[in-house]
Each structure stands twice: as C-alpha cells, then as structure tokens.
Write a structure and sequence with these properties.
The protein is of the alpha+beta class. It has one helix and eleven strands; from the N terminus they run αβββββββββββ.
Length: 139
C-alpha cells in the first residue's frame, strides 16, 4: 500500500471519528454542546439568535445588526410571526418567549421538555414540536 493511499485512509478515519463525535453530542442533549446561530426571515429584516450566548439580533439588508433582546440562556428555537413578533425557545429556561419589534419580551409558555421546531402560520398560530415528538399549539 502506498503512502498516499494510507494517508487517504487515515484522513477518512479521522473525518468519520469527528462526525461520530458531533452526532453523539447532538443527540446527548447537553446544553453546552449547542453552539451556532438560528435564523428567521422577516418581511423587512432577518433575525439571528446566537444560541449559546442567548442573544437575538435584527439584521437589515444593508448589514446593520442591532441587539433586540438577550438573557435567554441557550436558544434552540426561533420563528417569526406575520406581525413580525419573534418567538424564541430557551432550552435553559424551558420557556417560549415572544419579542415585539421594540424588544419587549413576554413569556408565552413554560415547557417541561425542550422544543426542537417552531412554526408560526400565516394566522399567527404558534406550533412547536418537543424532543419527545409531541406537538403543541399556542394561540
């Protein structure tokens, strides 16, 4: 076996190990493994949640980025409603929050389980799915 072939095999094994560790971390459900950003598209702007930092920003088309709200702990869900209210699920606090355009935060629902998906339909009805696969609706 040539050294080039051996190098390719070793690189493939290392890549597989990295993927396995990432998948195991994702399914472990540990808060400290959650990093990155969530994005929700509004009518005139985008909303970005820094997951680990617990901060939510408004980002305009010209690149301007403004802090909308913070203090959520680990964020695992983000969705925008037709009236441009933003829904944020905090895994740390196990609560669903609504943020208006001025940054006013209101707790909507306390949850015993983590939310993995949030959807706000065109009528403003909030639907979400928990880790256990249960779905709920908030009016």
């Amino acid at each position: 076996m040539s050294s080039r072939s051996l190098r390719i095999i070793v690189n493939c094994l290392i890549s597989c190990m990295i993927v396995i560790v990432m998948v195991c971390s994702a399914f472990a459900g540990e808060e400290n493994n959650i990093t990155g950003m969530l994005v929700a598209n509004g009518k005139k702007c985008n909303y970005i949640a820094e997951q680990a930092e617990g901060k939510v920003y408004i980002v305009y088309a010209d690149g301007e980025r403004i802090l909308l709200a913070e203090g959520f702990g680990v964020i695992t869900g983000l969705a925008v409603s037709p009236n441009e209210s933003l829904y944020v699920f905090s895994q740390s606090k196990k609560r669903l929050f609504r943020i208006d355009q001025r940054g006013k935060v209101q707790m909507v629902k306390k949850m015993d389980e983590a939310v993995r998906a949030i959807l706000v339909d065109r009528d403003g009805v909030v639907r979400f799915v928990t880790d256990a696969g249960e779905s709920f609706t908030v009016q």
